[in-house]
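Protein record
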Amino acid sequence: MAMNTCIPSQWRIVEMPMFSIEMFETPMLWLHDERHGFLRFCGMEAGVDYQLSERDGKPFIEFTWWEPHRLPHCGRGWASIDGLSLHGKIYMHAGDRSDFKAIQVYGDPDEDSVEAIYTNAKAQSRRKPVIQQSRKSTAVPRSRKVQSPIPDKVRTALKERLERHIEANWDHTLVRLILRFRAAYAYVDVQDPTQNFPTHLCRLGYLGGIEKWEFAFFKYSDEVYEKSRDWSGSFTTTPEQAFDVAATVYLADNNPPSKQ
């Protein structure tokens, strides 16, 4: 296996004996480029700085991680890459350590399973049909709801649109896009090469098309995504407008575009 074939890639941590990983979101290790990555386990989300080398004829990765919001703030780790599996150890600074095993995945491990989607579709088909009213309804139309999963072609189109927008309107030498997908949502982060961890910007909810998305702004004060409005006052917006709203708050020094 060539050393660079695992970049970019994502690895699902399936074993970590010293930690109760089943109590939290799926633990993952993402490798975004030839140096930076992202690590999630036991409720922590940490930026990763890593180096890839070779030992005993196999790719070998050594990394440090830093999580600014929880204790301990940092740690290190290493792993040997053997085909589509990864075996190593994760250390918390001045704290616990654990062996771990991960497998390479190509879709979102948190996304609704095919079986769950099929079961839900059957349940919907068993519902009683709505009786049509003979007179025109005066009810207020319901807002569009997010849909899961996000098709692969939409994921690709979203990534391409945002990358073009960043290159045209922002200082793209300091802003590198990171997209994470889970069920009906796309999580928009950016990585500053001078920083050790990404900046969370916003969450986009898939409404069935590429043009309009539900917009939720990431609040660092309580670390939640809150449904928000774009510059026009709408809760549904284009990916570019959602990016600009969030980035203007968190990336004010990187030449934000006009709000017009």
About this structure: Confidence is low (pLDDT under 50) at residues 111-143, 255-260.
